[in-house]
Amino acid sequence: MLRSASALAVLFALLTPAPEAPIQVPVKAGAPVTAPVLDIGGKVLDANGKVLDIGERVANLDESVTNETTGTQRTITVAADVLFTFDKATLTGKAKSRLEEAATLLKSEARGKPVKIDGYTDAKGSDSYNLELSRRRAQAVRDALAGLVPGTDFTVAGHGEADPVAPNALPDGGDNPKGRAKNRRVEIGFSR
Known about the structure:
With 192 residues, the protein is α+β, with helices and mostly antiparallel strands.
């Protein structure tokens, strides 16, 4: 049994090719050294995928003001409940400090660029009423910012209950006051 194992080892050694020794090429001093070219063949695959913009979102503690960047677009969102009393388009006392925050950013980043102000409401009330209320609120913000950031080109639009950022109703059909509060907002946007 021992002999057959040794014979098998010898046979294996004879059939296994010896490792190739590295080729050494004499090089003259100052002569360029070149390496052998390897031909690596194979299928070339394209890498495809969805390209996502990197964004950032910063909010104050009560989330009444958010500052969000997506790609080249900057949007400052101010909760309408901070800017206006219920069913009104007249700015409150709290609104001034919030709009001063927005004006500081506009002065530093939106110089010479058009700024769009979009007003939104929740889903309570008729479509036509909400559309008009959202437009008047956007206009009130525009008027205040025009005094804080003179020389800026503002455009104003009201969208009513369009483009909600939260559900106005709960899954069971009940009222969602927190969702409706998020939908009542004014967005101040510009390209960076």
